[in-house]
Amino acid sequence: MSAFAAAMEALAVDPNIGADATYRAGGTGAPVPLRVVRSAPDRLGDAFGTGVIQATDVLTVAIAALPTVEADDTFTLGADTLTVQHAERDAAGVAWRVFCRR
Predict the structure, then answer these.
(1) Is the whole model's pTM more than 0.90, yes or no?
(2) How far apart are CA 74 and CA 17, in angstroms?
(3) Would you tell me which CATH number, out of the four given (2.60.40, 3.40.50, 2.40.10, 3.20.20), belongs to the domain 3-101?
(4) pLDDT along the chain (102 residues), means of 10
(5) What is the DSSP string of 54-85?
(6) Please, are residues 62 and 5 in contact by the beta-carbon 8 Å criterion?
């Protein structure tokens, strides 16, 4: 295990940073319990020439825990169900950055 993979694992299991989640492929697949790191940055979007602040959800998920992520897969965190819009690997190849909509 690389230092980056160990750091990702430490962040996910930390009760102050990581969160329990349930992943479902295609939104209806078999549930897969795992730990994720959730962030919710605001993004500035554009609507007809007017700046609009949009809430987003970005999950960081260890590739070791979830080898593949596709658009329309879902993650459930507590009462929130997040649908994957896009997922990309980090530069070290140990984690997914998963961009979701609520």
Answers:
(1) no
(2) 20
(3) 2.40.10
(4) 80 88 95 94 76 82 95 96 95 93 87
(5) EE-EEEEEETTT-S---TT-EEEETTEEEEEE
(6) yes
